């Protein structure tokens, strides 16, 4: 099999997943977008969290041209991104009890804010406790996860529950357990994960829905422009100044 055929198969798999999410998760994406718009309209704040590779779609909506300026990344030291050294530390920290509570307690997140929690498996202590603790202090929680893991794996949290069990809205990425779309004779492990592609698309769909909902209410969505187009820096400067008390990634 040629490499180009494998590439085509991966694109087909990713497109198929995107189409499933578009068609099957539309009501939940609309609900999540409304929660985000409600928070913006009420003067509350927006946060996104993910650990390991799940942090990538979270970071993708923070300080993003064409994105909502109020989306802040809720960072857990040692788990954000793929620059953690050693890489295995991030996986270990996801299983540590109490870490999520410590992060939330020292964050600016408070009652009425929205927290988007991204976790493909939703089974580790960190995302489960993050959702539980966030709701306990009055945050609205949107979970982006693969619901299949709740039946295909066992929870690593003491409660035996998954992220999906502690959310106001659950967005199912439809990713199969193992997150690998391709297999090939002669290669022992499945390969070609699609979770980042699909989850990033879900996040952008929610943000787009929120912007449209705000506009429908006669409110100007606090969107950022690209700094690489004329006038972009000036536009963003005005947005940052107007909403500075709700933007924390700039400090």
TrEMBL record:
Segments passing through the bilayer: none
Superkingdom per UniProt: Bacteria
Record domain SIS: where: 36-221
Entry's family note: Belongs to the UPF0309 family.
Protein known as: UPF0309 protein NRK68_14875
Species of the source: Streptomyces yangpuensis
């Amino acid at each position: 099999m040629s490499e180009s055929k494998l590439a085509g198969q991966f694109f087909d798999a990713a497109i198929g997943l995107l189409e499933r999410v578009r068609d099957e998760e539309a009501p939940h994406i609309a609900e999540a977008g409304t929660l985000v718009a409600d928070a913006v309209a009420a003067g509350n704040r927006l946060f996104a969290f993910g650990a390991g590779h799940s942090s990538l779609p979270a970071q993708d909506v923070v300080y993003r041209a064409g994105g909502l300026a109020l989306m802040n990344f809720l960072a857990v030291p040692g788990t954000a991104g793929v620059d953690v050294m050693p890489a295995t530390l991030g996986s270990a920290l996801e299983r540590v009890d109490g870490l999520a509570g410590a992060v939330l307690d020292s964050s600016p997140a408070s009652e009425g804010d929205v927290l988007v929690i991204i976790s493909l498996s939703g089974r580790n202590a960190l995302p489960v406790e993050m959702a539980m603790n966030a709701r306990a202090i009055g945050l609205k929680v949107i979970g982006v996860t693969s619901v299949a893991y709740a039946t295909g794996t066992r929870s690593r949290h003491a409660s035996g529950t998954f992220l999906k069990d502690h959310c106001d809205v659950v967005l199912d990425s439809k990713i199969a357990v193992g997150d690998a779309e391709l297999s090939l004779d002669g290669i022992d492990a499945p390969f070609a994960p699609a979770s980042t592609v699909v989850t990033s698309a879900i996040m952008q769909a929610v943000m787009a829905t929120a912007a449209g909902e705000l506009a429908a209410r006669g409110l100007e969505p606090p969107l950022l422009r690209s700094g690489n187009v004329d006038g972009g820096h000036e536009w963003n400067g005005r947005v940052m100044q107007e909403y500075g008390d709700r933007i924390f990634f700039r400090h």
